[in-house]
Amino acid sequence: MAEVELECAVYGEGTVFPVTIALDVKVSALQEAIVNEKKDVNERFKVDPAKLTLYLARKEGETTWLADDRSVKNFLQAGKSAEYERMRSSWKLNKKELFGANPSLGEKNIHVLVELPEAQQSAVPTKKQRLEWRSTRWGSHAYDPNSQYFLLEKEDVDESGLPPVRMMLYCRPSFHRQFEFLRDEVLNKGHLGWILGPPGTGKSTTAMAFASTLNRSEWMVTWIHVGKFMGWQCVRLIGDERKTRILDISDVDDVLMVDDDKKHHLVLVDGWTAADEFIKLTRKCVRWFLHSNGVKQRRRLAFVCSVATRGKFQEDMDILTRAREFRVWSWTLDEYLNAIKDDDVFESVTQRLDSPAVLPDEEMTREAMVESKYYYAGGSCRYMFHFHTATVATKLSDAVDSLNAAATVATSGQHSSSSINRLFGMFKRPHDVGAVSPVISQYAATLIAVRCGPEAIKKFMSTHRDSSNPALNGWMLEMVFFASLRNGGLALVDAAGNTVDMWGESVIVVGDGIPALYSAHPVWIKPEKWNQGGYDAIMVCKRTQHVRFVQVTSAHKHSFRIDHFYGWLKMLSESPQSFEVKTMEIIFVVEQDKLSTFNFSTVTGNGLLVPFGWPKGKETDLVRLVGIRGLYNLSH
Which intervals hold domain Crinkler effector protein N-terminal (predicted)? Predict the structure, then answer.
C-alpha cells in the first residue's frame, strides 16, 4: 500500500508536523507513529500511544480540511473543538469515513488533530489566550429584500461557531422575515429579541447575514456563540475591522462594555438554550441591555436559540425587556426544490444528496435526489445539505436509541433537549395561532414506530393533527401501521368501516436485503431506504410460499412503479433464502375515508410481473385497496 504524508496538529501547543504512514493500517498505528515522531524532541509525547486522542481535521459531513493558515495556532491554543470527529483506534485509515482508499489531501491543510493525555481534562483556554483579539480587514454586505440568495464568504464566518465554509444561502420567506424582525422589532423598536426554532433551520446563518449588512458607521455588532463543551467564540464587527477571540463567563462584562459613544451596539448571542450553563450569561446580557441610563447610543440584544421554545420564563422579565419572539419554521420540500434551482447552490450540495437511488441513473434528476434525501432529512436543512445520508440516519437512530422509552417522547408535553435537537421539527398551525412540532422526517417516524406502541403513537398524533405540512400525515399513518403490526396486530377495513382482514402481531426486520426466512412463521420486512412509488413493507412466508407487498399512503393518489416490486422478487430469487413464489399480493393501505376516491397517478413497468401470474396491463386491477380507520380515531 502506498504511503501518505499526514499533517498533524496538537491541541494546546499549536504545533504542526508531518507523519508518513501507509493507509492500510489502523489508527492505533498512526498513534504509535506520532509518538515515535515526537517523543525524542517533546517530553509530552513520552506516553502510551493508546492515550493519544486523534480527531479527523475535517468536519462531519464536509469535504474541506482544516487550513494550515495564520489562524490555526490560535485555533489550537483555544482548546478542543467539539466539531471534529474522533478517530477510533480500531478503524483503518483507508476507511471511507476517514481518508478512504484514494484520499484528496490537498496542500497547506491539516489532516489530524492530536489531543495529548494531560490536556484531555480541560479544554478551557487560558486567560491570556482568551483576551487576545485577532483582527482582520472586512467588508460589509448589501441586503436586497427581493433577492433569492445571499452569499456568506468563509471569511464572514471564521471563528464564529458557524461552519467555516463559503455558503450560498437560499432566501426562503423565513429568511426575509427574520431580517425584518431584527431590523424592525430589535433595532428600531428596542425589543429584546428571541429567535426560536429547531436546529437546522438557518437561524444562525441568517442572523450572521443580517449582522454583515448593518451600516458600520452607525452600528457595531458583538456576536457571542456559546456551547457546553468548548470555549465560547466572539466576533466583533466595528468599522472596517472584524475581530475575533475566545471568551468565557468572566470576560462577558468586559466584552459588552465598549467605550465608543459614536456607535449603537447590537449583541447577538448564538446557540442559546435554557441550560444552567447559560443562566449567568443571560443575566449579564439582560442587565447590560436594561442599564443604559446615561448611555447616549442605543443598546440592542437578541438571543438566537438552538431550541424551539424558551421554556418557562418570568413574565415580569418579558414585560421589563419588552421581549418579542420570532419563530423560524422547519423547511418544506418545496423550499428545498426552490433552493437547488440555482446551479451553483446545487453543485455545492450535490455530494450530500447521496441517499440510495430510487430511479435509474438517467432519471435521477436534481429534484429526485432532493426528494430521496427528504425521506431522511425532512425539515432539517442541516441534515439535507450539510450531512451525508448515512450520517443523518445514524444521528436519528442514535437519538431514538438514547430515549428512555419511545412512549415518553410520544406522550409527554415537553421534549428532552436531545430529542428535540434531532427528532422534531416545527411548523406553523395553518388555521390557528401557535406551532406544531411533528417528527422531523419520515425516516425518524418509522424508527419511532418500530419501537413504540399504537396507543403512544395516537396520543402523540393528537397533538399534531393541524400540521401545515401535508406529508406529515402520511408519515404518521405509517407510524400507526408499524406500531399496530408490532403490538397486537392490525385491523383492515373497507370504505364502510367493516373489518375485511386482520394481520396478526409480528416482529419487524429492518433492512434492504433478504433476512433469514423461517418456515414456521411469516417475516415482515421494513426497507431502510426510501422507495418512491414502491413499497413500505413486505410480508414473506416461506411455508406457504407467499409474498405480500404493502404501500401505506394518506394521499388520494399514488404512483405505482412495478419495477420496484419486480426488483425485490428478483433479489429474493437470487438469494440463499429463495423459494418459488406461489402467491404474490400488492396491497395499498390508505385512510378509510379515501378508499372510494383513491387512484394511481402514474404506472410504470407493465408486464414485469407476468412470471408471478399478473397479466400485463392488468396490474392496477389486481392491486388490493384496504383501509385503516381514521388517522386520529383508531379503535382501541
Answer: 4-115
How far is residue 120 CA from its own chain's centroid? 28
Report pLDDT digits (tens) over 205-222.
999 999 999 998 999 999
Q: What is the pTM of this model?
A: 0.71
Joined grid coordinates for residue 629: 380507520
Pair 30, 57: CB distance under 8 Å? no
CB 233, CB 159: distance < 8 Å:
yes
Amino acid in the structure at residue 241: E
DSSP annotation of 556 reads: S
Q: Which three cell numbers stand for residue 150?
A: 445571499
Q: Are 577 and 542 in contact (CB under 8 A)?
A: yes
Q: Burial, 401: exposed, middle or buried (Cβ in 10 Å; 0-12, 13-18, 19+)?
A: exposed
Domain 3-123 classification at class level: alpha beta
Q: Which of 323, 388, 328, 319 is nearest to 353 (CA)?
A: 388
Q: Among 149, 137, 140, 77, which residue's Cα sits nearest to residue 113?
A: 77
Q: Which residues pair with 5 in a beta bridge?
A: 20
What are the structural domain ranges in the chain?
3-123, 129-327, 333-486, 490-628
Q: Transcribe 347-376 into DSSP letters.
A: HHHGGG--SPP-S-GGG--HHHHHHHHHHH
> 474 to each of 26, 440, 571, how far by Cα in Å?
45, 13, 28
Contacts of 210 (CB under 8 A, 6+ apart): 143, 178, 179, 182, 183
Q: Can 3-123 and 129-327 be said to share one CATH topology?
A: no
Confidence at 374, pLDDT banded by 50, 70, 90: very high
Judged by average pLDDT, the poorest of 305-309, 321-325, 626-630 is 626-630
Q: What spatial distance separates the first Cα and last Cα of the chain, rounded to whole Å?
A: 63
C-alpha closest to that of 61 among 425, 386, 444? 386
Higher pLDDT, 59 or 577: 577
Nearest Cα neighbor of 339 from 362, 366, 361, 373 is 366
For residue 379, give the amino acid letter.
Answer: G
Query: Which long-range contacts does 121-125 make (Cβ < 8 Å, 24+ apart)?
Result: 122/79, 123/11, 123/79, 123/80, 123/229, 123/230, 123/231, 124/79, 124/231, 124/248, 125/77, 125/78, 125/79, 125/231, 125/246, 125/248
CB atoms within 10 A of CB 315: 8
- For residue 223, CA distances in Å to 211, 242, 244 come to 9, 11, 9
E strand or H helix at 4, and its extent?
A: strand 3-10
The strand pairing partners of 539, in sequence order, are: 524, 548
